[in-house]
Amino acid sequence: MKGYVFHGPGQSAWEEVPDPAVKEPTDAVVRVDAVTICGTDLHILKGDVPEVRPGTVLGHEAVGEIVEVGSDVRTVRPGDRVLVSCISACGRCRYCRDSAYGQCLGGGGWILGHLIDGTQAEYVRVPFADLSVHALPGAVDSKDAVLLADIFPTSYEVGVLNGRVRPGDTVAVVGAGPIGLAAIATARLFSPERIVAVDLAASRLEAAKRLGADAVADAAEDPAQLIADLTDGLGADVVVEAVGVPESFELCTRMVRPGGHVANIGVHGKPATLHLEDLWIKNITITTGLVDTYSTPTLLRMTAAGRLPTTQLVTHTFPLDRMEEAYDVFARAADTGALKVVLGEPSHDEIAVPAA
Known about the structure:
Blueprint: E1 2-8, E2 11-16, E3 28-36, H1 39-46, E4 56-57, E5 62-69, E6 81-84, H2 94-97, E7 123-126, H3 129-132, E8 133-135, H4 142-145, H5 151-161, E9 170-174, H6 178-187, E10 194-199, H7 202-211, E11 215-218, H8 223-230, E12 236-241, H9 246-255, E13 256-264, H10 276-279, E14 285-287, H11 296-304, E15 314-318, H12 323-331, H13 333-336, E16 340-343
Parallel strand pairs: 9-10, 9-12, 10-11, 12-13, 13-14, 15-16
Antiparallel strand pairs: 1-2, 1-4, 3-5, 3-7, 3-16, 5-6, 6-8
InterPro entries: ADH-like_C, ADH-like_N, ADH_Zn_CS, ER, GroES-like_sf, NAD(P)-bd_dom_sf
Keywords: Metal-binding, Oxidoreductase, Zinc
Cofactor: Zn(2+)
């Protein structure tokens, strides 16, 4: 089979790799029908995630069909259509018992496309299948479902829930890429007074408006002052960091009000300065986190009911064998307007989804 292989910073290729097979009785092998590319994959290619060894197949999000299961797998069987979660869970360790699956001590956590071969391939081996794949209802399209493998649970859990968004809040989301846009969409579920999106790209700010942002701000034009103007000088109740660079994190700490929350989602490859000389007196709560995906069943039900705008985030589709082209389009989002790219649909030219 073929997969997208990381060979070191700046080096990767769609090439022949060994077929996966069941190694443990809790494994499943899934034929990949739809897969997407994550910003974290770009961080890996830049060398920001040194744990990823050369020779690893990338990817941690997929929809597909079970083709083989180990003897201990009970919840799925060959022929089932499933969502492959970005997080694997042993189900037995201290963290898994607390639904903190991202911190699994039993061989799970974020392992696909990180510590073991991932989903950007024709087939993938999924450990701990009973807790790491989710059966899909027929009503949920693959392009919608694949966005629930990572970005929606990440934005919802690490951004909205960790940030404790409440009715009437002012919420600022710094970074209007896919994660930031999903944070906007899920923050709306809690009826904040206003959501303000901050980004450098005009196309992403337009997408933020479509997803529910009430106001937008160019990151180069003092968005902290806009937040102050909108809140009578108080600042935002919740600020979500969805970029992962020092400047965006420090901007978030300037935008939050005393007693407010900064919820960091971004993957940081460099140190960011924490200005405790200013923040210690302001009762600020700062949270970080790797997604646990405990919310995935809830988000699946909401998607099946048409409550989440997943389709609006998919701007390009490709057949699986055009992985290198898809990476190029996704990496040049400022030029291409790409939000999420989905691969694995029937072979045709890439499709830009019209703005809603």
